[in-house]
């Protein structure tokens, strides 16, 4: 018998649409009570994977296990899942109340309880007044919240959420996220969550699954994945990274020098150096938000300052994004705005601490 | 047994039920006897030969075909337009008009037939093929309106809106977007109006001008003297055509595409 | 107002379809057109009632000639003022027609004629010899059709006149002089309850008998003959006071008379009339004493070699017309169980 | 709601005008003649007596005979409709969920019976159900029965004939509606705990109601207006209201009475249509779509 | 004649759905060549307003002007708009190629040019290989990109985009945003953009329109709106703000003291003080990301340090969000993560600079 501490497990799962392979080989576990997030570029197979778990799409090859049992051909209604579709899929002919009550009815919840639960769910998604409307009388974000309420209200064993917050504004989204997390904890329901919002993914997940092109690129705790990307793809996909081919210098007491192809030399830590496995040929990954800009060179021990010129500035509210040209190479830098952003054309120093210089093997992908 | 295979079996049974009389007619078309019933006592092609030589039936058949095609063209056009108005717009008197559009099938045909003739009498207008056609259009119209309406409500409005936002006029939007999406309903409407027209007796009896006969009126007039199996033979020929044509077309398409595939395979191999 | 009055270039003829109209077209209309240049537009109808309804809804002159049923209908058209006046001088072949068929028509339209008789037949009792012997049929006569023994195997024409006629015979009354109409209705009810089916066309009559759905019904002589010719063992009996009828070629008011008269005369040419008669299995209205009817005609049922038709009874048009409104409506109810 | 704001007022009328003109000219005006006729009388010869008489109306509305037949007619139409709906839904569902290629063929096959003229088709039931028909022959030969069963010429065969005639209309209407339903919705229902069948009942069925309702309306109205089927497949007593109308107009040449009768039928069926448009019609259903 | 430098102008526009008023009174201009973003909570009327501009929804009251001409009743196809729907609205029966080519066909573009333009558009949205597919064979994000391509390819006068990037991952989204901006500049097309992503709104817009509840709360240049919210709603909606009732102290030479209800005293600038119009009764608005956390009190001139205790930490990748309890009040603070986030339970100082203490009137809303 398989490991029963996994709510969902995919073993070598493949999905083909005719000649096109949407999911190439998916190995994945969703531990009990955990919150797992799928992150990946558009079209990488997130929805397809979710649909296979839900039982809406046939698995072409491989095994799908729920609570250790192979369920490749278990009908969806026996899986006790809560599912939020990317396009909501509200029942157009039912009122909002009936949409949310739907799943409860099939769980033989008493009438009075249903009314109570639906009202609560509507409160939860902050739409207490729309119970009598039809879906087509709601805005996009409102429909999405109803879809969420409908999936949550049944207190399922597994919650599958396909971008359930994408149509909400930042504040509401945050509130929903908190609620969602609370519900997940309270019910102890294993949750698979698809999102394109990285901070959401990082903030909410127990486990982050980065997918690309029908395979899992990396999975692990959010901080781990963020701080130690296993591939250039992950490094670049999570946040913005400057990835530069480099040669590893000889290790110093505390730090190792990293000679970038573009000419500059950075420092890195012993921990990172170990990842190179003795090879000199590496790529240095420096996150845009880990580079500190300032007018003066204020490099301290274990940090390097590279002079450059600001080429463009994007104003992002609390932060600004800069493209800084140094030695003919464009660096991307994201810094919080203190009083006001640095100006276009300004001469500037980029400070990079050794601990922020992550290494990857030279020709991995 | 899975639900789907039960549905499949039920469907086959329903189709068999629908085809039973057709099968009987076809079998009897090959019966040597005029009245035999079952079991059939002899096989013969004489009724097909008779059909071939029967100008009246062949002529009536051509008339019916033409009338049916024209009726379905006109009726489907008018009915689809009306359905579009009913579903896509709000305007005063909609319910009344909705009832009005269905009215033609609420009146016994013989009454409608006589009423229309009385009107023509008052106008001193002679009967004509055009009148017969319009008569058929009137009582096939509700079929088209009903079926197209039922489909139209479920076609998302926003794809039409998208088309117009891209510069298509409402008319262009209709032909490019709405029509293709409701094609099943329009085809159904066409089938309805064609078959109803092709099969109509009462209205046709009253409205047809001198010298015009359709297959049903021809048959109706023949009833006094026992129907000749030539009629069965005609039905058999039509049925065989209806079944065979799409099958032939499909297999031609298959052969063609197979050939194309082979050709392209060859190309990639040599490349 | 004569928007649709036939021009001398064409006349309109309506008749029964199938073999009858084929014979008409081939032996009458085509040669006639060739001879005179006048086109015959040929139409069909499914029954006399339907045709009269169409004429009534039509426009004057729209319909010209028709192959109509019986004396009774002639009277109806006369009542609706649709009769014309034939110039008999233009129809020399009229002299060959059985006088007893012409006289009733003349009587209705006050001496002149609006039609020429064309064929005749009987509505007798048809029975399946497998189940009913000739003797039994002969003994029971019209009452064979209300015999409990054949419940569910009895048929009948769903036409009010025929039903009442046979109802009269079954209640031992003179159909043309019914004293106790209630007794007739009761007989019709009895027959209705025993019957499997009221048929409404010759085709149905033939198929019911051929497939042995029913064993006994009244039937049209020509149709029964056709069945017998196909090898079905069906007996046919004209009971005492057997019901005869004729069909005529009727010219409606407002028609181009000369052209119509010429066509009528043409159709009464013996070879034309005989060909048509053979086609529909009903004897022509030609007098066998004056014309040689060939070999086949004399074998047709109801054929009277004497040419007097003395053994047959016909609907008395005056009597039946007088009761038409009432009886047809009452029959409609009685048929449905009232 | 209106896309073409400028034309929104005019557009529906432009779309409707050809149909309304056709119906108005070929139906409404002619039916006024019929209304007038219903107040005339039939004379002894079958000609019409012009005037304003209420006799026909008194007879039609006061006589139980007509009421009974009307009731019987509606009962037959009702059975027919229900059977058509029950029997027709399944193949419609099957066709809607069949791959595109076979779909067209299956739909075309539905229309096959129509190549055989209605009368012939109806009469051919005699060859199937008759005492020497196919069914009895087969059952006799395999020994299920000892002697032929009398199946024909009763109300059941009338309904059977009507069902056979009307089934394609029902199937096609339902199919057209089913074909337009978003598959995601049944999936959503199933994800919420419905079995396939429950999802069907909760989502597919209600969303196919426009087609089912349209099909049912057609079946009911056509069945209620039929007169040939009872003549061919019914027993002596089996009649429907349209037979009375037909007899009045054609056999009895009593157009005034026939007019009054047909107006009664029109009024009753019209009421049904009004109910349909109100509670099942497009307006009602359109609310939940778009 | 109205001001012709406005591509779109709404004057007192109202939209009612039966009894419900979705747009209460909308006054709004979209200047020529400008990029205007609608920002607002779910259900506030963004889509409705867009639809009215497009001519898809009737204006109940008021005037809608395009290039100075009242167009309340001009049919949509004569408005030369590019429109991206919130739910894509691709033509399900047409291939991707035909979907994109659709608008071109009606602009009488030559066949060969159409093929070229469509191919270019597909390249632009990074889906060069899907031309022959049907919409239902694409993922959500892919469909959205096609919808964008379809609207852009016709080079319209006005581009109306309803959350056109919501289904895309951050990287792709950024690329699309750059492309969109480039196209907008090149074509000089007035663009109305609906988004829930604030950094997107701030980065892209020439003008930001913050809506709430069917009215415009504030409009202006992004920085202006961000730095000087006109209402508590705007302050809270854009980013996260700590909004605290306060009493204005007497003005100092450079700074004015702000006495918070919760007990602490902050400083603010003369510029802000002016906004109070002499009233003492104000609300202080301090953005979460403008509060600097550190272990030590390092308050300088013009800055105040408030001691507190970290209650919760949310890991957001490059940043962390903290709830800090000080004097029984919860403060929200967002700070970039240097080496590692501050720990839950840690004692901490919140540094608030005078320039980051924005004032609002006391009882405005
Ligand atoms: N047909 C309708 N009938 C009634 N109310 C409607 C209708 N359509 C929209 N509404 C309401 O109008 C308001 C505005 O809707 P709108 O779609 O413009 O919101 P939105 O700002 O686009 O929201 P979102 O960001 O969630 O898409 C909402 O409260 C919605 O519920
Ligand atoms: N029916 C289909 N036929 C062919 N290809 C398909 C089909 N459905 C999806 N695909 C393809 O499979 C791939 C994965 O699709 P999926 O919907 O799982 O992506 P996703 O990760 O959810 O993307 P998004 O974030 O854009 O929603 C995509 O490239 C898509 O084009
Ligand atoms: N009503 C009198 C009988 C007329 C019978 N005609 C039937 C048609 C066969 N000639
Ligand atoms: Mg997806
Ligand atoms: Mg919206």
From TrEMBL, chains A, E:
<protein>
    <submittedName>
        <fullName>Polyamine ABC transporter ATP-binding protein</fullName>
    </submittedName>
</protein>
<dbReference type="InterPro" id="IPR013611">
    <property type="entry name" value="Transp-assoc_OB_typ2"/>
</dbReference>
<keyword id="KW-0067">ATP-binding</keyword>
<keyword id="KW-0813">Transport</keyword>
<dbReference type="Pfam" id="PF00005">
    <property type="entry name" value="ABC_tran"/>
</dbReference>
<dbReference type="InterPro" id="IPR050093">
    <property type="entry name" value="ABC_SmlMolc_Importer"/>
</dbReference>
<dbReference type="Pfam" id="PF08402">
    <property type="entry name" value="TOBE_2"/>
</dbReference>
<dbReference type="InterPro" id="IPR003593">
    <property type="entry name" value="AAA+_ATPase"/>
</dbReference>
<dbReference type="InterPro" id="IPR008995">
    <property type="entry name" value="Mo/tungstate-bd_C_term_dom"/>
</dbReference>
<dbReference type="InterPro" id="IPR003439">
    <property type="entry name" value="ABC_transporter-like_ATP-bd"/>
</dbReference>
<dbReference type="InterPro" id="IPR012340">
    <property type="entry name" value="NA-bd_OB-fold"/>
</dbReference>
<dbReference type="GO" id="GO:0005524">
    <property type="term" value="F:ATP binding"/>
</dbReference>
<dbReference type="InterPro" id="IPR027417">
    <property type="entry name" value="P-loop_NTPase"/>
</dbReference>
<feature type="domain" description="ABC transporter">
    <location>
        <begin position="8"/>
        <end position="238"/>
    </location>
</feature>
<keyword id="KW-0547">Nucleotide-binding</keyword>
UniProtKB/TrEMBL annotation, chain B:
<comment type="similarity">
    <text>Belongs to the binding-protein-dependent transport system permease family. CysTW subfamily.</text>
</comment>
<feature type="transmembrane region" description="Helical">
    <location>
        <begin position="129"/>
        <end position="153"/>
    </location>
</feature>
<dbReference type="GO" id="GO:0005886">
    <property type="term" value="C:plasma membrane"/>
</dbReference>
<protein>
    <submittedName>
        <fullName>ABC transporter permease</fullName>
    </submittedName>
</protein>
<keyword id="KW-1003">Cell membrane</keyword>
<feature type="transmembrane region" description="Helical">
    <location>
        <begin position="174"/>
        <end position="198"/>
    </location>
</feature>
<feature type="transmembrane region" description="Helical">
    <location>
        <begin position="99"/>
        <end position="123"/>
    </location>
</feature>
<feature type="domain" description="ABC transmembrane type-1">
    <location>
        <begin position="61"/>
        <end position="249"/>
    </location>
</feature>
<dbReference type="InterPro" id="IPR051789">
    <property type="entry name" value="Bact_Polyamine_Transport"/>
</dbReference>
<keyword id="KW-0812">Transmembrane</keyword>
<feature type="transmembrane region" description="Helical">
    <location>
        <begin position="12"/>
        <end position="30"/>
    </location>
</feature>
<dbReference type="InterPro" id="IPR000515">
    <property type="entry name" value="MetI-like"/>
</dbReference>
<keyword id="KW-0813">Transport</keyword>
<dbReference type="GO" id="GO:0055085">
    <property type="term" value="P:transmembrane transport"/>
</dbReference>
<feature type="transmembrane region" description="Helical">
    <location>
        <begin position="65"/>
        <end position="87"/>
    </location>
</feature>
From TrEMBL, chain D:
<keyword id="KW-1133">Transmembrane helix</keyword>
<dbReference type="InterPro" id="IPR035906">
    <property type="entry name" value="MetI-like_sf"/>
</dbReference>
<comment type="similarity">
    <text>Belongs to the binding-protein-dependent transport system permease family. CysTW subfamily.</text>
</comment>
<dbReference type="GO" id="GO:0005886">
    <property type="term" value="C:plasma membrane"/>
</dbReference>
<feature type="transmembrane region" description="Helical">
    <location>
        <begin position="104"/>
        <end position="120"/>
    </location>
</feature>
<dbReference type="GO" id="GO:0055085">
    <property type="term" value="P:transmembrane transport"/>
</dbReference>
<dbReference type="InterPro" id="IPR000515">
    <property type="entry name" value="MetI-like"/>
</dbReference>
<feature type="transmembrane region" description="Helical">
    <location>
        <begin position="69"/>
        <end position="92"/>
    </location>
</feature>
<keyword id="KW-1003">Cell membrane</keyword>
<feature type="domain" description="ABC transmembrane type-1">
    <location>
        <begin position="70"/>
        <end position="276"/>
    </location>
</feature>
<feature type="transmembrane region" description="Helical">
    <location>
        <begin position="263"/>
        <end position="281"/>
    </location>
</feature>
<feature type="transmembrane region" description="Helical">
    <location>
        <begin position="20"/>
        <end position="40"/>
    </location>
</feature>
<keyword id="KW-0812">Transmembrane</keyword>
<protein>
    <submittedName>
        <fullName>ABC transporter permease</fullName>
    </submittedName>
</protein>
<keyword id="KW-0472">Membrane</keyword>
């Amino acid at each position: 018998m398989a490991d029963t501490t996994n709510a969902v497990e995919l073993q070598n799962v493949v999905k083909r649409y005719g000649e096109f392979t949407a999911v190439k080989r998916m190995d994945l576990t969703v531990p009990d009570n955990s919150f797992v997030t799928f992150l990946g570029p558009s079209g990488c197979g997130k929805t397809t994977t979710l649909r296979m778990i839900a039982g809406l799409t046939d698995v072409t090859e491989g095994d799908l296990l729920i609570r250790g049992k192979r369920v490749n051909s278990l009908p969806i209604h026996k899986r006790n899942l809560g599912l939020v579709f990317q396009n909501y899929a509200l029942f157009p002919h039912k009122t909002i109340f009936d949409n949310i009550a739907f799943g409860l009815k099939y769980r033989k919840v008493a009438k009075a309880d249903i009314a109570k639960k639906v009202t609560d769910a509507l409160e939860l998604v902050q739409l207490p007044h729309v119970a009598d409307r039809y879906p087509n009388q709601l805005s996009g974000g409102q429909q999405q919240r109803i879809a969420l309420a409908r999936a949550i209200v049944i207190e399922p064993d597994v919650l599958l959420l396909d971008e359930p917050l994408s149509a909400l504004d930042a504040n509401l989204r945050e509130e929903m996220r908190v609620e969602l997390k609370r519900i997940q904890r309270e019910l102890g329901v294993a949750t698979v969550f698809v999102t394109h919002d990285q901070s959401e993914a990082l903030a909410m997940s127990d486990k982050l699954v980065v997918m690309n092109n029908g395979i899992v690129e990396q999975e692990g705790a959010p901080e781990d994945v963020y701080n130690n990307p296993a591939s250039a793809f992950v490094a670049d996909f999570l946040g913005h990274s400057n990835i530069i081919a480099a040669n590893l210098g000889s290790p110093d007491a505390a730090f190792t020098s990293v000679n970038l192809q573009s000419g500059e030399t950075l420092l890195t830590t012993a921990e990172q150096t170990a990842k190179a496995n003795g090879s000199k040929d590496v790529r240095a990954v420096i996150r845009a938000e880990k580079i500190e800009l300032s007018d003066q060179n204020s490099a301290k021990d274990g940090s390097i300052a590279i002079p450059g010129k600001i080429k463009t500035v994007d104003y992002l509210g609390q932060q600004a994004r800069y493209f800084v040209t140094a030695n003919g190479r464009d660096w991307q830098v994201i810094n919080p705005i203190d009083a006001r952003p640095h100006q276009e054309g300004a001469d500037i120093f980029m400070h990079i601490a050794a601990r922020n210089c992550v290494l990857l093997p030279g020709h991995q992908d | 047994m899975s639900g789907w295979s039960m549905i499949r079996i039920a469907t086959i049974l329903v189709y068999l039920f629908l085809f039973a009389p057709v099968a009987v007619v076809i079998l009897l078309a090959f019966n040597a006897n005029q009245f035999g019933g079952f079991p059939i006592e002899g096989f013969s092609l004489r009724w097909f030969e008779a059909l071939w030589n029967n100008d009246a039936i062949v002529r009536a058949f051509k008339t019916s075909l033409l009338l049916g095609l024209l009726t379905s063209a006109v009726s489907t056009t008018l009915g689809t337009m009306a359905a579009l108005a009913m579903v896509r717009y709000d305007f005063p008197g909609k319910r009344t008009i909705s009832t009005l559009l269905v009215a033609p099938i609420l009146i016994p045909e013989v009454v409608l037939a006589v009423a229309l003739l009385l009107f023509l009498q008052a106008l001193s207008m002679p009967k004509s093929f055009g009148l017969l056609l319009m008569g058929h259009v009137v009582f096939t119209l509700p079929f088209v309106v009903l079926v197209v309406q039922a489909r139209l409500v479920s076609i998302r409005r926003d794809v039409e809106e998208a088309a117009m936002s891209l510069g298509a006029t409402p008319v262009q939007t209709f032909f490019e977007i709405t029509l293709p999406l409701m094609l099943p309903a329009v085809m159904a409407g066409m089938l309805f109006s064609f078959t109803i027209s092709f099969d109509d007796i009462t209205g046709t009896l009253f409205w047809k001008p001198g010298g015009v006969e359709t297959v049903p009126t021809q048959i109706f007039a023949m009833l006094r003297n026992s129907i000749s199996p030539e009629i069965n033979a005609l039905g058999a020929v039509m049925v065989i055509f209806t079944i065979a044509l799409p099958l032939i077309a499909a297999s031609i398409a298959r052969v063609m595409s197979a050939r194309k595939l082979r050709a392209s395979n060859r190309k990639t191999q040599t490349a | 107002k004569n928007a649709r009055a036939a021009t001398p270039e064409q006349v309109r003829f309506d008749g029964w379809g199938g073999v009858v109209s084929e014979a008409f077209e081939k032996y009458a209309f085509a040669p006639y057109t060739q001879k005179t240049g006048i086109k015959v537009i040929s139409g069909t109808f499914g029954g006399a009632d339907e045709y009269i309804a169409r004429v009534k809804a039509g426009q004057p002159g729209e319909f010209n000639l028709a192959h109509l049923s019986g004396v009774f209908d002639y009277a109806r058209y006369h009542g609706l003022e649709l009769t014309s006046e034939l110039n008999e001088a233009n129809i020399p072949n009229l002299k060959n027609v059985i006088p007893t068929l012409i006289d009733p028509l003349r009587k209705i339209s006050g001496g002149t004629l609006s039609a020429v008789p064309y064929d005749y037949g009987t509505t007798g009792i048809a029975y399946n010899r497998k189940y009913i012997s000739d003797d039994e049929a002969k003994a029971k006569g019209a009452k064979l059709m209300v015999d409990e023994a054949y419940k569910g195997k009895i048929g009948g024409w769903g036409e009010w006149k025929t039903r009442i006629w046979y109802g009269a015979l079954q209640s031992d009354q003179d159909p043309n002089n019914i004293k106790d109409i209630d007794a007739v209705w009761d007989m019709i009810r009895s027959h209705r309850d025993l019957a499997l089916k009221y048929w409404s066309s010759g085709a149905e009559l033939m198929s019911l008998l051929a497939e042995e759905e029913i064993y006994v019904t009244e039937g049209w002589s020509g149709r029964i003959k056709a069945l017998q010719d196909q090898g079905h063992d069906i007996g046919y009996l004209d009971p005492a006071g057997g019901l005869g009828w004729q069909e005529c070629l009727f010219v409606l008011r407002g028609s181009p008379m000369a052209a119509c008269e010429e066509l009528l005369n043409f159709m009464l040419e013996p070879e034309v009339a005989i060909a048509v008669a053979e086609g529909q299995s009903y004897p022509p209205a030609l007098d066998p004493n004056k014309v040689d009817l060939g070999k086949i005609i004399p074998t047709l049922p109801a054929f009277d070699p004497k040419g007097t038709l003395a053994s047959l009874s016909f609907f008395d048009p005056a009597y039946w017309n007088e009761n038409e409104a009432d009886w047809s409506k009452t029959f409609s109810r009685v048929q449905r169980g009232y | 709601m209106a896309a073409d704001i400028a034309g929104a007022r005019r557009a529906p009328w432009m779309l409707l005008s050809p149909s309304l003109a056709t119906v108005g000219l070929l139906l409404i005006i002619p039916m006024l003649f019929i209304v007038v006729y219903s107040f005339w009388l039939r004379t002894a010869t079958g000609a019409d007596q012009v005037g304003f008489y209420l006799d026909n109306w008194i007879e039609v509305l006061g006589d139980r005979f007509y009421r009974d037949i009307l009731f019987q007619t509606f009962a037959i139409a009702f059975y027919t409709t229900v059977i058509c709906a029950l029997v027709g839904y399944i193949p419609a569902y099957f066709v809607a969920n069949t791959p595109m290629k076979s779909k067209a063929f299956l739909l075309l096959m539905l229309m096959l019976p129509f190549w055989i003229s209605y009368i012939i088709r109806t009469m051919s039931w005699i060859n199937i159900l008759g005492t020497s028909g196919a069914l009895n022959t087969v059952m006799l030969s395999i020994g299920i029965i000892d002697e032929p069963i009398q199946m024909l010429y009763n109300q059941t065969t009338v309904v059977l004939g009507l069902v056979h005639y009307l089934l394609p209309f029902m199937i096609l209407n339902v199919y057209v509606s089913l074909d337009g339903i978003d598959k995601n919705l049944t999936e959503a229902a199933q994800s919420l705990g419905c079995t396939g069948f429950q999802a069907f009942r909760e989502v597919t069925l209600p969303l196919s109601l426009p087609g089912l309702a349209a099909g049912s309306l057609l079946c009911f109205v056509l069945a209620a207006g039929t007169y040939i089927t009872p003549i061919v497949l019914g027993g002596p007593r089996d009649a429907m209201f349209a037979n009375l109308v037909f007899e009045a107009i054609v056999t009895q040449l009593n157009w005034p009475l026939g007019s009054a009768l047909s107006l009664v039928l029109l009024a009753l069926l019209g009421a049904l249509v009004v109910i349909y448009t109100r509670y099942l019609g497009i307006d009602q259903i359109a609310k939940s779509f778009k």
